Amino acid sequence: MTHQSFTFVVLEKDHFVAQDMCAGLVEAAPDSQFLHLADGRIPEDLLPRLQECDRLPVLVAKSHIDEMDACAAVRAWKKHGWPIVLRLGIDPVESIRTRGWYPLAAPFTRDDLDDLVLRLTLGEKDRRLA
Predict the structure, then answer these.
(1) Is residue 129 part of a domain?
(2) Which secondary structure element, helix H or strand E, spans residue 72, and what is its range?
(3) How many helices (DSSP H) and strands (DSSP E) are in the chain?
(4) How far is CA 47 from CA 16, 39, 95, in A?
(5) Could you report the per-residue pLDDT of 72-86, keeping only the tens digit for each?
(6) Domain containing 73 — which CATH number?
(7) Cβ neighbour number for residue 62 with a 10 Å cutoff
């Protein structure tokens, strides 16, 4: 199966977690790019640049749903219809799925990242995570 290529934009303060996630995502989707935003903010000029990119932008964060909803950049992200992945541990899986977002285990394994890429490629938000 051929995987789509993505630009993963990861909001993560912990550099070790971000580095581990990057390695796993690049292994799962080799033609993809990875952008780590350690300060947890999406720069204003990023969304227009992502629109011009051939890769599908995917936002990955470990935040409260309410914080995500309050963020103007995330609202713009949603208007584009780009996938949003929330790591588990803050909000319940069903709350994430209800929004049409993709849940990701926290802590995650390489298998979880492989599964995420597969779900993103197929557009299946609910597969495997029960």
Answers:
(1) no
(2) helix 72-80
(3) 6, 5
(4) 25, 17, 25
(5) 888 899 999 999 999
(6) 3.40.50.2300
(7) 20
